[in-house]
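Question (not urgent): is this output format expected?
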Amino acid sequence: MGLFVDIKIIPSSGRQKIVLDKSGILKCYLKSAPEKGKANDEFIKFLSEQLALPKNLISLVSGRTSRKKRVKIDQDIEYLDLIKKLGLEE
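Got this back:
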């Protein structure tokens, strides 16, 4: 089945961090510039490390050239479990 998640990317921020903002939007800060897919590659690698999943289980569904990405996680996981794994539980 998998889980689809919308995440806003902030490239060239000088840090790697995922946060849940006040309005409930997931934001991922990346070091890489949005050039030649570098930020996308860094995002997939960073997310896979945070979730302790292989990179091949995480794929960009839409937003390859946009800051707003839709990601599919090919794992039997609920949204709230994802938030807990990322250390963002309230």
